[in-house]
Amino acid sequence: MSKEEEYKEIFLAEALENYEELNRLLTQLEKSPGDKKTINAIFRITHTLKGNAAGMGFKNVSDFSHILEDLFGEAREGKLVLEDSIFTTLFKALDTLGKLINAIKDNKAVKFRGIKTKMEVLLRTTKNEALAKSSGEEKSVEDNVSPANDTSVEEDSIFDPLDEEPENDNSKISFSDLVQVPVRKLDNLLNLVEELVIERDRIIASNSGVVKTNEYTRLNRISSDLQYSVMDVRLVQVGFLFNKFHRVVRDAANLEKKKVGLVLKGTETEIDRNILQIISDSLIHLIRNSVGHGIEKPEIRKKNNKKEEGVITLSARSESDAVIIEIIDDGAGIDIDAARKKAIKQGLISPDDANQLSDNEMVQIIFEPGFSTMNQVTAISGRGVGMDVVKKALDSIGGNISVDTKKGIGTTFSLRLPSSMAVKGTLLFELDSETFAIPLSYTKAVVSLYKPDIHKVANGLVSTYLGNIISIVFLKDILDLTVYRPNSLHKSFNEVHPEKKLDIVIVSYNNRTIGLVVDKLLQQKEIVEKPLMRPFDKVKLISGVTIMGNGHVCLVLNVAEISNLIFSRNFSTKNALSI
Amino acid sequence: MLDQEKHEAKTVETEQLVASQQLIVFRQGDEEYGIHIDQIKEVVLTPNITKMPQTRSFVKGVANIRGNIIGIVDLEEKFGLKEATTTAEANEANNYTLVIESEDYKVGILVTEVPNTLTIKSSNIEQSVNVIHDNNLNSDYIKGLVKLDNRLIILIDIFKVLDEPELETLAALEDAKSQ
Coiled-coil region(s) at which residues (chain B) (predicted)? Predict the structure, then answer.
């Protein structure tokens, strides 16, 4: 099915649901016409329906809901008194709306001009009565004559009496082609598929010598297809989330007295629903941040020869197994010198360090907890919480965030997210005769070094990789760490034989590159990661586990936390034990 | 041994049906420990245990039990009934694992012998227990002592055991601070 078809199907399902809900609410309203809550609910639904239909290009449905929305808008403000006679019209209008929605599917002709005009007249009279104002701004009926692309609507005379409309198919109940499934059920389904895949790998591994490998080709294919189908069901378009941000931008801009427009790109990009949910707060924060910190006030923009209205672009695109979401503003850019001063003042970094860091390294400081460049605390930004929370949210799903800023031109936040939670590409290695996995998203390279290549510097170890100095850590030292003592990280290094070849996995997180010394590199493998449950949920260095073909548990390293542990300044007083 | 216990359990059961409780009794060191049968999920042969970093020594690691990832603990080590062992050593000593289930999570206890069930009268449980213990720790996890003929069974709440802070850790922390 083409993308367009799929959207149409989703729209229809939602629209029909809206229609059913409107029917229910209107019936309720008829019984108690003064109920503001019901009127509000109807107003909201018609508004949503109008927006969705307009977005899909179904002009008839959109226009029709627009009028309904206007009518209930008036009713909401008490200008339109809902009498019995009006309800007759409203119900008839609702039936017509239902037919218009169905017409998108079956291309049936629907006569709707008459009832539409009647409502428009009703609306005009109400407005005239209430405001004694001409209805010049009203959309003239003639504007709406062009039929929508997917519906062939027979045009009948504007003054057709309503009674002529055939009522024959009123009794037909329409069924949507979509079913709604709670995410909980999908999660369960995915869990089962994951277990199936693990079990498949186990059986194949245990029979590897006995049976020909192609014996399992079909099993492999079917279970893989099943896995990907289930994952596919969980995918949603980022547009569902992105569209909500128009309001976020508007509210934030109003509050800050700025003019900001939002441009959406790549809204059809698909991503796992749970990932979208996890990052939704982060995106809201980043967007508010762009409005608050990024876009300048109109007068300043004018002075700098920019358009008064700032633009925030929210774009999404797929890149192999990742989804990249970018928040781009054309604002002032991050003031790196101010950030540097602030960081020193807040004691996040020493003045010496601060002056040594390049601008690009310095700007990453905004992700440190407790950092904010805004001197004034405003309602939407400058509270000093947020960026580090954004970072944590991304770490939790194995994504990452980077920032690129140019003074006077703007700032781009770039989020790299896994498109699916289920399968992770990892590199397997052995340490202390146990197998570990490290996500490929953090892995840069694997190299071999000998003891003389590595040097002790202060309490740590360093070496060079591609001309850059990188930290070297014997992973064993970190995992065995219970309480930090000086030179803890030299322990394995001191014991190692000078001629032993050391396998090193080079990982990168937050612009920090670390070489992790492991015992033996194994292969690359796609794994299904399960989160750690109590009582291990406080174990930081491990992000989750997976079950190997032999039934053993394999730990998945949390590179973000390992990096934080190594570079954390409070290292020495922290107790490394979690439970 | 097993038969004798079963026999005992049966006689007790018939005598006191009303206020009776069923326990799972397992040996740790030379002592017998008891856990309420409601908390026990199953007894399995101990699967391969994977060591988990950042955990205390008596936490032996995690294992895959019927697709569930379950933490495995060595209570003998926790209660100071034996010297600390490594996960590798725990893997070699091929014994049983008692899987305990709470609302929140599951945990496995390493046992050397298959545990037995035992029905006791509620009146056999001595609730207020005076045990000598370190003031810094609370021994909330001891729910009571069961006196039965010549036997003494220590009734424990395994989940409180896991919540208790470890003495050696505290000492080590002090050590690190003073450096």
Answer: none
Number of CB pairs < 8 Å for A and B? 94
CB contact (8 A) between residue B50 and residue A579 = no
Minimal Cβ distance to B47: which of A541, A551, A572: A551
pTM beyond 0.90: no
B64: nearest CB among A479, A553, A572? A553
Report CB contact under 8 Å: A542, B52: yes
With 80 as the cut, is the pLDDT of residue A287 above it?
yes
The CATH number of whichever domain residue B43 belongs to comes to 2.40.50.180
**Strand order across the A443-449 sheet:** A443-449, A502-509, A512-518, A468-474, A460-465, A455-457
Cα B136 to Cα A389: distance, rounded to the nearest angstrom:
36
Q: Does B109 contact chain A (CB < 8 Å)?
A: no
Q: What is the CATH number of the domain that holds A218?
A: 1.10.287
Question: B84 at the A interface (CB within 8 A)?
Answer: no
The tokens describing A524, both together, are 């690359």
Provide CB contacts within 8 A for A435, sequence distance 6+: A428, A429, A522, A548, A552, A554
CA distance A550 to A544: 18
Q: What is the ipTM of this complex?
A: 0.75
Cβ <8 Å between B172 and A578:
no
Q: Rounded CA gap, A216 and A211, in Å?
A: 9
Residues of A in contact with B88 (CB under 8 A): 433
Q: How many CA atoms lie within 13 A of A206 on its CB side?
A: 11
In a domain, A284, yes or no: yes
**Tens of pLDDT, residues A322-376:** 899 999 998 888 888 887 887 787 777 777 777 777 777 777 777 776 665 554 4
Closest approach of B24 to chain A, Cα-based (Å): 23
CA of B94 vs chain A CAs: smallest distance (Å): 15
